[in-house]
Amino acid sequence: MINKFSVAAATLALTLPAIAVAKEQINIGVCVSWPGYAMHEIARQKGLADDYDINMVIFDDPLGGHAALAAGQLDVYECTGDYTPLAIARGSGVVNVAFTNPSYGVDHVILAPDVDVSDMKGQRIGAPQAYIGQLLMGVWLDSKGVSLEQVEWVNLLADEAVGPMLSGDLAAAYLYEPWITKVMENLPGSSSAVNTADPEMLKTGIFMDVVYMNGDFVAERRDAAKAMLKARFDALGWWHENTAEGNEILSEFLKWPLADVESVIGTNGKFLNGGIYMYDFNESAQVCGVMEGEPPFDIGNGAMKDVVASINDWWVRLGLMTETHDPEAGVDCSLMSDLMASGYSQSFAARE
Asked: According to the model, what pLDDT value does residue 123 have?
């Protein structure tokens, strides 16, 4: 006997429109408006992670973004790698899952006119505390035999240091474009003492952008975490093949002039001298130590944990931290290892 209720239910199912199943939302933070941090926006627009609803948030407040990541308000966060030891010390559970690109000359120490490193004792220098600029200034001073206690540190972001440099209030400052040009064009005699394209700076691995993830996100939503890491490198590969369009997407998302995007990330789909160098997946996996081969710039295979330990040492020397920690607690290369085990591979050079 045919059940009339079954017939009615079947008829109803055929006549009602299908109800869309909501996609799993992934909240991704960009710590400052910066082209290297925004590849997930290309993934979102080009459907490279179509099973997920990617929600992009630009913070322009690195520490605020880290707090949101630790609280679980963000799942993924792209920023500089210098925060990793601080995340370990605070027990936030945040992990660094991939190195994405070293600074390739975009970061500079600029000297005021007639200032030499031998004159630095007792001088005021501008650098943002707990950020890549303080590290670059510290590493440079140390390499020149200047004690870190012999200078007066002034906590200034690059844009905030322009005025004091022009007014003669600083002997040196950490700057990047467009602030380098603003200072050097308006302060005759100013000079660049060092930048992150220096081979000795590159091989430290300190001046690196990374992908952070919330530890609970990795543990409890592992498929999504792997998908987001893959989407980031898929987007990078898409940008490599479609650089002009990719740069336009980044320009619109960041609200930057296209020329400014190109001045950081270049037009050859790989790097820009004076900007940044984009690791492909295989290079990043080599730094993680999950793939054979030597990554660029003599950083060494498996150097990721050593870099974190080195940054920790520098934060202690600079007075930001009081002790060192096991870098293992803040590094997780297992997602990259899983992707590689699944057959994922990506290697490309600059296009001509």
From this structure: 95
- Write the single-letter amino acid at 229: L
Residues of the chain predicted below pLDDT 50: 1-14, 16
Tokens at 11, concatenated: 């008829």
Identify the helix (H) or strand (E) that includes residue 25.
strand 24-30
Amino acid at residue number 307: V
Geometric angle at alpha carbon 95, from 92 and 98, rounded to 5°: 160
Closest CA relative to residue 184, chosen from 163, 166, 159, 161: 166
Closest-CA residue to 242 (of 33, 42, 99) = 42
What is the distance between the alpha carbons of residues 210 and 83, in angstroms, rounded to a whole number?
A: 10
Residue 23: DSSP 8-state: P
What pLDDT sits at residue 13? 46
Tokens linked to 288:
């993680």
The CATH homologous superfamily for domain 24-102+207-341 is: Periplasmic binding protein-like II (3.40.190.10)
d(CA 140, CA 253): 34
Supply 299's token pair: 């950083």
Cα-atom radius of gyration of the chain, to the nearest Å?
Answer: 23
**Which amino acid appears at position 236 of this protein?**
L
Pairing relationship of beta strands 124-127 and 24-30 according to DSSP bridges: unpaired
H or E element in which residue 249 lies: helix 243-254
User: Does 24-102+207-341 match 107-195 in CATH topology?
Assistant: yes
Domain ranges of the chain: 24-102+207-341, 107-195
pLDDT value for 20: 61
Residues in the chain: 352
Q: Model pTM?
A: 0.90
Give the pLDDT score at 347: 98
Q: Show Cβ contacts of residue 197 under 8 Å, excluding neighbours closer than 6 positions.
A: 103, 104, 105, 273, 274
Query: Residue 21 in contact with residue 53, Cβ under 8 Å?
Result: no
| Distance separating alpha carbons of residues 47 and 21, to the nearest angstrom | 17
Q: Kindly indicate whether the domain formed by 107-195 is annotated with CATH number 3.40.190.10.
A: yes
CA distance linking residue 132 with residue 146, whole number of Å: 19
